[in-house]
Design brief:
By secondary structure, the chain is of the alpha/beta class. Helix content is 29%, strand content 17%. The chain crosses the membrane at residues 42-60.
């Protein structure tokens, strides 16, 4: 293919080239100077050269207006530049002035400029999964912005079960994103969060998600998106978030099957009851500005070419106010890899008619005009797609002239990596750490009793490992070794050269250190060499000889042995759970830039990860009734149907602590319904020896309903059991009487 000379396309082709290499292809590029070769490594180097030359010399300066520059007296008087007009009117005016050739070049993530209308080019692809990231070409670090606050990976933050924390992290990330936009270093469209259901625990990208539970994932999605996009500007957006990857995507490269060829066979029941929930919540509760379709097929149809899920569900049933974007080169993938269409023009037409508005990559810019000329697509279809993307840009203020004069225009480098932001990253890591075992108890450690601590393991002194994938450049790091060293004297031995732990060459030093110390902390687990995008695991055991190192060190340890695990996906450590020499097990996930400090705070008792007792008292009352044999969730009375629970949580320990109150429901339906499902959760702080009352409101239609095999959500009549810890409550939804009765 020919590579256009424009820098933004060089970046796009560089990134798409890398995707093609992942797919095992050898693409051939030809440049106008005649260079070309069939050897893909030469092409990769050539594109990399262009990429570095074009962008390594970027200097930080205030961002000029994207469009509607007040200094441009001609274009600034056009209707689409008048911010006092309704956005739909401005959008229609702008699109009406474009030629077909200009329109198709706006259908891609590296959107071209329209100089005659005073509109600059724009790169849509930026990432902000758990902090501003430079994974996408729309964002870069340097100059006044050497880094940004790197929060814990999503799987860790989700383990806090703290929705207000998730929203606050989103607010901080968007502050830093806007600051970098104002400084000319980032865009305003961030393709985050990833809210896929982490169903297969071997998936390398599970670390990016809130986990396997649909209710938790949905709550996380809405909370983080609200934080990112802002909640105080009406229809205006602080940044535009994107919930991805819709849908049924939890495989990258496993056992000879990759995401470019994967066909997820999913029942109607599972789609509605599992995979739809976080995306529906993201759109309807979070009001997200974008949804991304995935690489895979669902029941034989590529998600980016399926009108039932894009046009009918996301935009129709859920009423998305925003744009739908493809994963990078997804349209090319369903044409070239999945052979879903016979020509690229058919692929372009199918995607746009299905409801796709924007293509990550150049595919639509190359093939859409020909699709129109061949009668496969109408120009009106393109207008609809552009209407959705341009409206988002206008809601972001990109057509309102000078950025510094707009809301958030005062944010700059002073607002990135602030002490408050970095303290929030530390607090998020503390709250996400999970105590899996504490025999004795072995924790907390004491600087007085444990004057020397052996710190052992391949993850004991790591930095970038702690921030996981889709990360940027952190403000700074505190490693586990450094964190523990602030409490007591340390003896450090890695034990393994890396997490692969291929041999026992370094075991001796680790064992000797454990014999000398008053306590031993093993920091083990995984990193991106084991689990990552396009890198799924074959099993759940620790890599290499890690288990042997743990067992031998624990056997030799003079004092208590604490196992700390870093990972995104789950690890089978049943051997450690059953080993009496291992006193405690702590899971830290990928805890972000301050992870080492958070781990140390937990180990030494500065932060209590949860030793609160189970709830001891509970009662509930109802505030509505029903009088029907069965109710479909679409029924008008659903909005008024709820149950309130009041639960007293007591802390029997000697330290203040936080407890996650989890409420599960067991419905009375048949064998096709779940045996137990999470319906509510609350984070509660309880002082030592104290008690706290927690109120939980459960929306009956939303959380006590079940989905039948036809994909219809219903509320089954009869006795529903609510489980809170070891306590079971019964709620009877009765037909033809007054409905909800407590027992």
């Amino acid at each position: 293919m020919d590579v256009p000379e424009k820098p933004i396309y060089i970046v796009q082709h560089f990134l798409i080239f890398h995707r093609l290499i992942q797919q095992g292809k050898k693409p051939k590029y030809s440049f106008k100077n005649g260079y070309g070769s069939d050897h893909h490594s030469i092409h990769f180097s050539f594109l990399l050269f262009f990429f570095l030359v074009l962008f390594s010399g970027h200097i930080v300066e205030a961002r000029p207006p994207f469009a509607c520059d007040p200094k441009d007296s001609v274009n600034n008087n056009l209707a689409f530049c008048k911010s006092n007009l309704p956005i739909p009117d401005r959008v229609r005016d702008f699109i009406g002035r474009l030629t077909l050739q200009e329109k198709v070049k706006l259908l891609v993530s590296g959107a071209s400029a329209v100089p005659r209308l005073g509109v600059k080019g724009y790169e849509w692809w930026s990432e902000a999964l758990h902090g501003v990231s430079d994974v996408g070409p729309g964002t870069k670090f340097g100059g006044e912005f050497p880094g940004a606050t790197s929060f814990p990976q999503v799987i860790t933050t989700a383990a806090s079960f703290n929705a207000s924390l998730w929203e606050e992290i989103g607010r901080v990330v968007s502050d830093e994103a806007r600051a970098m936009y104002n400084g000319g270093m980032a865009g305003l469209t961030f393709w985050s969060p990833n809210v896929n259901i982490f169903r297969d625990p071997r998936w390398g990208r599970g670390q990016e998600t809130p986990g396997e539970d649909p209710v938790l994932a949905g709550k996380y999605a809405a909370s983080y998106v609200r934080g990112l996009q802002g909640t105080d500007g009406g229809d205006r957006l602080k940044v535009a978030a994107c919930c991805k990857h819709y849908t049924a995507y939890d495989l990258d490269n496993w056992s000879g099957v990759d995401r470019f060829h994967f066909n997820a066979k999913v029942s109607k029941q599972d789609i509605v009851d599992t995979f739809d929930i976080p995306f529906r919540s993201c759109v309807m509760e979070g009001k997200v500005a974008s949804v991304m379709c995935s690489y895979n097929q669902v029941n034989g149809v590529p998600t980016c070419a399926d009108p039932k899920i894009l046009r009918e569900t996301v935009r129709g049933a859920w009423r998305l106010n925003g744009y739908i974007v493809s994963d990078c080169d997804s349209v090319g993938v369903f044409y070239d890899n999945q052979h879903y269409t016979t020509t690229p023009e058919e692929a372009a037409a199918d995607a746009i008619k299905a409801g796709l508005d924007l293509n990550c990559g150049p595919f639509l810019a190359i093939h859409t005009e020909n699709a129109v000329q061949r009668g496969l697509l109408k120009e009106d279809d393109i207008n609809v797609a552009l209407g959705n993307t341009v409206a988002v840009q206008m809601r972001l203020g990109m057509f309102d002239g000078e950025p510094s004069a707009q809301p958030y225009g005062n944010l700059g480098s002073k607002d990135v990596c602030t002490p408050a932001h970095q303290e929030l990253a530390l607090e998020a890591a503390r709250q996400g750490i999970v105590l899996l075992k504490n025999h004795g108890p072995s924790l907390p450690l004491s600087p007085r009793r444990h004057r020397t601590v052996a710190v052992i393991g391949p993850n004991s002194d790591v930095t970038v490992t702690m921030i996981g994938n889709y990360a940027g450049v952190a403000c700074g790091y505190t490693t586990p070794l450094q964190g523990i060293g602030k409490y007591t004297r340390t003896i450090h031995q890695q034990g393994c050269a890396n997490v692969a732990c291929a041999n026992e060459a370094l075991f001796g030093g680790a064992i000797d250190a454990a014999r000398q110390a008053d306590a031993t902390v093993l920091v083990m687990g995984l990193d991106q060499s084991i689990e990552a995008e396009f890198r799924d695991r074959a099993g759940l055991l620790l890599p290499g000889s890690q288990q042997d190192l743990i067992s031998k060190v624990a056997m030799a340890s003079r004092g208590p042995t604490i196992l700390v695990l870093m990972s995104g996906g789950p690890i089978d450590v049943s051997f450690a759970k059953n080993d009496p020499k291992i006193g405690a097990i702590v899971w830290a996930g990928y805890p972000g830039q301050a992870g080492g400090a958070a781990i140390a705070d937990v180990l030494f008792g500065t932060h209590n990860p949860g030793v609160v007792s189970v709830p001891v008292n509970g009662r509930h009352h109802t505030n509505t009734t029903i009088s029907s044999i069965a109710i479909r969730v679409t029924h008008a009375r659903c909005s008024r149907l709820s149950i309130s629970l009041h639960v007293d949580v007591r802390n029997a320990g000697s330290q203040d602590g936080a407890h996650t109150l989890l409420v599960y429901s067991s419905p009375p339906a048949g064998h096709w319904a779940p045996h137990k499902q999470l319906v509510a959760f609350e984070k509660v702080h309880v002082p030592a020896r104290g008690q706290q009352r927690v109120s939980v409101k459960i929306h009956v239609c939303k959380y006590l309903s079940v989905v039948d095999r036809a994909g219809i959500r219903r509320i089954p009549m009869g006795e529903h059991a609510l489980h809170i810890g070891d306590v079971r409550h019964s709620v009877s939804l009765q037909a033809a009487t007054l409905g909800i009765i407590k027992s």
